[in-house]
Backbone:
């Protein structure tokens, strides 16, 4: 499993900069996460604040996976990234 | 006289006049009326119904589930829509229909539909038209889903729902009741709830729409249409001989 690292970054959503994270696997960008409030997840089965997958690449991208629900914390987001990286050719 | 089939008659008469005999035939076609609560299935995928369901009140969704548990809503139904007129000829339901709100449903036995097709050629064409419009809406949705931005797609859907509700007398000026949740809108547009939230904010911020509870008000119809690249040709709203 490649080393997964995070880099804080500001992401422009809703017309302004929001707290975000670049997710890299062995130095390659695989996901961009942004912090969303509970208000922004209104209508989810559970309305939660957390991390939203703004963009994914490779196994985490739209060619291979569907947008996952909002993650409650970064650990949960990284667990999803690991699962996608391990999945190989297994479009979900 | 208020008749039970009023929303269907309004929907059909937007497109062509119906005779009194044809309206009576529709009234007489209803065998019973039932109420289905929100989130309950009205018809299930795989069913082989021997009757079709006409929505009198409420909102319903045609949907399919995929293996990852996600749901795609492929049609939204309003009062006056036949939810599964198709099942008269297709027999096996290839999709399910779910009540999004409490729904009042009139049941029309397939045997009665067969009798209508034997005795009322013009009314038969109008019911055919009804399913053709369903098909036209699917084509329009497919195009919007594939090639419009999420914001434009939402604007397009709002324009369409507003006009469809207006035709069946469910609009008050520029406002309609739209008790559809953001999760349901997401399943309709193929968007996450975060994205649904953002595009609605965007349309609000631009002064195009306003939501107050379930009441949706269109503040700038011309701009909303422009944003959604909405042209209502596919809804066949002209009244002409058919």
Residues:
């Amino acid at each position: 499993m490649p080393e997964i690292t995070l880099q804080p970054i500001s992401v422009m959503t809703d017309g302004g900069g929001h707290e975000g994270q670049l997710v890299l696997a062995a130095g390659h960008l695989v996901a961009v996460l942004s912090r969303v409030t509970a208000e922004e997840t209104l209508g989810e089965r559970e309305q939660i604040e957390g991390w939203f997958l703004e963009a994914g690449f490779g196994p985490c991208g739209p060619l291979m996976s569907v947008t996952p629900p909002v993650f409650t914390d970064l650990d949960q987001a990284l667990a999803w990234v690991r699962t996608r990286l391990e999945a190989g050719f297994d479009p979900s | 006289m208020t008749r039970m089939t009023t929303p269907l008659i309004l929907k059909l008469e937007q497109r062509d006049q119906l005779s009194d005999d044809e309206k009576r035939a529709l009234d007489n076609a209803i065998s019973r009326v039932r109420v289905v609560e929100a989130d309950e299935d009205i018809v299930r995928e795989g069913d082989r119904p021997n009757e079709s369901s006409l929505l009198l009140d409420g909102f319903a969704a045609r949907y399919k589930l995929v293996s990852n548990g996600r749901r795609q809503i492929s049609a939204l139904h309003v009062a006056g829509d036949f939810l599964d007129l198709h099942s008269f000829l297709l027999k096996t339901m290839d999709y399910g229909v779910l009540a999004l709100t409490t729904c009042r449903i009139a049941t029309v036995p397939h045997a009665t539909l067969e009798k209508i097709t034997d005795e009322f050629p013009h009314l038969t064409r109008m019911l055919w038209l009804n399913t053709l419009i369903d098909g036209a809406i699917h084509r329009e949705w497919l195009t919007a889903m594939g090639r419009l931005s999420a914001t434009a797609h939402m604007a397009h859907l709002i324009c369409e729902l507003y006009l469809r509700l207006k035709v069946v007398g469910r609009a008050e000026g520029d406002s309609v009741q739209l008790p559809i949740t953001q999760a349901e809108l997401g399943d309709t547009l193929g968007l996450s709830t975060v994205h649904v939230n953002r595009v609605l904010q965007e349309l609000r911020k631009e002064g195009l729409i306003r939501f107050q509870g379930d009441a949706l008000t269109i503040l700038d119809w011309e701009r909303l249409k422009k944003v959604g690249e909405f042209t209502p040709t596919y809804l066949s709203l002209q009244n002409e001989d058919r």
